[in-house]
Design goal:
The complex is a heterodimer of chains A (252) and B (295).
Chain A: H1 2-16, E1 22-33, E2 36-47, E3 51-55, H2 62-70, E4 76-82, E5 85-86, H3 92-96, E6 100-103, H4 115-121, H5 132-138, H6 140-144, H7 155-168, E7 173-177, H8 185-200, E8 204-208, H9 212-215, E9 221-226, E10 229-235, H10 239-250
Parallel strand pairs in A: 3-8, 3-9, 6-7, 7-8
Antiparallel strand pairs in A: 1-2, 1-4, 4-5, 9-10
Helix pairs in contact in A: 4-7
Chain B: E1 3-4, E2 7-8, H1 9-40, H2 47-65, H3 69-90, H4 100-122, E3 138-140, E4 145-147, H5 148-170, H6 172-182, H7 184-189, H8 194-216, H9 226-241, H10 246-266, H11 274-285
Antiparallel strand pairs in B: 1-2, 3-4
Helix pairs in contact in B: 1-5, 1-8, 1-9, 1-10, 2-3, 2-4, 2-8, 2-9, 3-8, 5-6, 9-10, 9-11
């Protein structure tokens, strides 16, 4: 019966969006931490294979938006559709299984696990996960350090590990929070190549990014957040025309 | 007769052996406490009550159903674990977001209730649990007699402790537990059913206490107060070893059992307090415990 409802929804969506199916659709999302109301009606939609960014100053609600999608905040209202399934009422471990991979801002490498244990920790959430061999080819450092304690890795290696482990799970929607933060320029360049390769493979990617120069050439669309809302949307082709406005919002 | 520092060696070996038996129980109980604290953030004061419950279940299995020692090694801990699951799912679950103190108070209350029920039914005098035939008698080691059952207790406890350590530190299942102890929210966001893991961890921890109780039944008498007698020492062991450290709990448990035994030989007056003296010293020098990490 579930499958029937799912395909029906896909059919109606295909009718309304002639171009591509929606991978993630967030509508009027409100989220709370205890008593404090952090998100005030966030709405955006990401189609399959798109890469978007959430930009904004610290405290604008970008990280909270990712956490609210994953069910890591307190109370949430509104609607979050992940691969056409409603996720607002689900427990966090069920949300992940809709096909989401999450790379947290603090990277979330476990210190009591070795590099390889960190890599193998996450359960499969989709069909087309990359094999460990493929990942070691993509990130050769991780193979060398596979027996090291997770937090003994360098910052760059930890970031690669945090990326690699979600690629293994078969997640097709990636939520990446500040992946370039605190990393050397050469590693940021490597990450840029990785992201480009993933986009070419058809991953849907939502990035929270402080480093606008890193994000600008990669993204299809930018959402600027302020005070827990989407304040502006900038399409890729509008970037040049709206640079002035973006600088104002981001306070660069 | 040979003597060391004026103490007959027979008495010394005898006390060391008793110390090792006690230490094995300390290790097994503090191991469960450490695992539970790591995952649930709850100081499980009901641990002694579950230990006592394990002993009573095995006594009941024998006296009411005629089920012997070997089956009760399996069935009694499962029964204790099931009680643990009910308590975790209906009560403890609501306290994880709060201060440690609430979990401690709740489990302390549960311990009093469980103990009260058994005292009401069986009074405070102990019920004997007969040794299985195979364990009657002793090994003659030349320098001392080693009762067979005590040898079995030491071997069984050490094997269980080692197996638990191995599963937690060296296997896939254990990596879930370690990661969940560090950052349960993130682990759940990766798609692992953390609430289920928490329930099973609690069941495992108290089941281990129940198994300790079954092993203890023939050594000590089956008594409603046996849990509260041992649990205070076990908490001292966990404090000395460091909360949440698996290996620390095991090694400290055995070491303190031995130290207690030695104290009984050389200065019996202090044997009941030596553990707490050590605890005070460790708290002064290393507040996080010998194996604990500062937070």
């Amino acid at each position: 019966m579930n499958a029937g409802v799912g395909s029906q929804m896909n059919a109606t969506e295909a009718a309304t969006n002639s171009q591509a199916a929606s991978a993630l659709q967030v509508s009027d999302l409100h989220a709370f931490y205890g008593e404090s109301h952090i998100l005030h009606g966030v709405s955006f939609e990401v189609k399959r294979g798109e890469l978007i960014t959430l930009l904004g100053r610290n405290g604008a609600g970008r990280t909270t938006t990712l956490k609210a999608i994953l069910g890591l905040t307190g109370k949430r209202t509104g609607s979050i559709k992940i691969n056409s399934a409603e996720a607002i009422g689900l427990a966090p471990h069920k949300i992940a299984r809709l096909g989401i991979g999450y790379c947290p801002e603090e990277r979330g490498i476990f210190s009591s696990l070795s590099c390889e244990e960190n890599l193998l920790l996450l359960p499969m959430v989709g069909k087309n996960g990359m094999s460990v061999d493929e990942l070691y080819t993509m990130f050769p450092n991780l193979k060398e350090r596979r027996l090291s304690q997770g937090t003994r890795l360098s910052g760059g290696e930890q970031q690669m590990l945090a990326m690699a482990r979600i690629l293994r799970t078969g997640a097709d929607i990636l939520l990446l929070d500040e992946i370039t933060e605190g990393l050397a320029p050469v590693i940021v360049q490597t990450l840029g190549r990785v992201i480009r390769a993933l986009k070419a493979k058809g991953f849907t990617i939502i990035m929270v990014e402080q480093n606008f120069r890193f994000a600008a050439p990669l993204a299809d669309r930018h959402y600027v957040m302020e005070h827990g809302k989407i304040a502006a949307v900038v399409e890729r082709h509008e970037l040049a025309a709206k640079t002035e406005m973006l600088h104002e919002f981001l306070g660069v | 007769m040979t003597e060391i520092f004026g103490v007959p060696t027979q008495a010394l070996w005898g006390q060391l052996m008793i110390g090792l038996v006690n230490g094995s129980f300390y290790a097994m109980l503090s191991l469960g406490l450490a695992v539970i604290f790591g995952m649930l953030n709850v100081v499980n004061f009901a641990h002694g009550a579950f230990y006592m419950m394990g002993a009573f279940f095995s006594w009941m299995l024998l006296n009411f159903l005629g089920i012997g020692y070997w089956w009760s090694l399996l069935l009694a801990p499962i029964g204790v674990a099931l009680v643990g699951i009910v308590i975790e799912k209906t009560m403890l679950r609501w306290l994880y977001q709060l201060d440690h103190l609430y979990g401690l108070l709740l489990t302390f209350g549960i311990a009093l209730i469980i103990e009260g029920i058994f005292r009401d039914q069986y009074g405070v005098s102990g019920q004997p649990y007969d040794l299985p035939e195979i364990f009657k008698g002793a090994f003659d080691l030349g320098f001392m007699m080693l009762p067979k059952y005590r040898a079995w207790v030491i071997v069984a406890c050490l094997a269980i402790c080692f197996a638990t350590w191995f599963v937690i530190e060296r296997t896939r299942l254990g990596s879930y537990l370690r990661a969940g102890t560090e950052n349960p929210k993130l682990v759940q966001a990766f798609g692992i059913n953390v609430p289920l893991m928490v329930t099973l961890t609690y069941a495992f921890g108290v089941g281990l206490a129940g198994l300790g109780g079954v092993l203890a039944a023939p050594v000590y008498q089956v008594n409603p107060l046996m849990g509260s007698n041992i649990v205070i020492v076990v908490f001292a062991v966990v404090v000395i070893g460091g909360m949440g450290s698996i290996l620390g709990a095991i090694l400290t448990g055995i070491a303190l059992g031995l130290i207690e035994g030695l104290t009984k030989v050389f200065y019996p007056e202090a044997s009941a307090t030596v553990v707490f003296i050590i605890m005070a010293i460790v708290l002064l020098i290393r507040p996080a415990g010998l194996f604990g990490r500062e937070k």
